[in-house]
Fold this protein.
Amino acid sequence: MFLQMTLTEKDNHFYCKPVKNSGENILKKFQQMNVNMDVIIDLSEFEKVDQAISVTLVSIQEIISNGGFSLVVVFKSISNFPNYDSLTVVPTLGEAEDYVQMEQMQRDLGISL
């Protein structure tokens, strides 16, 4: 389970890079935040994602989507990611940023896919 993170507000999204083995619970952080932007969670340095992390990400996605925004997870290998089908997972940060921009354009235009 990832417990500490860096959270940075960018121009059009929050960028979150979790770190293993520290003291802050990421899910509680998102429950306490008023998420008013799309979120990218960068797991690019993780070798695999276990079931606990996957469940946490799905819970975070629910919080973010209830606010009308999107969550994109950066992770290099879907084969090492349980429940990836219920999340948006892309292999690079550039692709995540592109995905967020596309989502924002769709919202601005009132398009829902």
Q: What stands out?
A: The two ends are 32 Å apart (CA to CA). The chain has a mean pLDDT of 83.
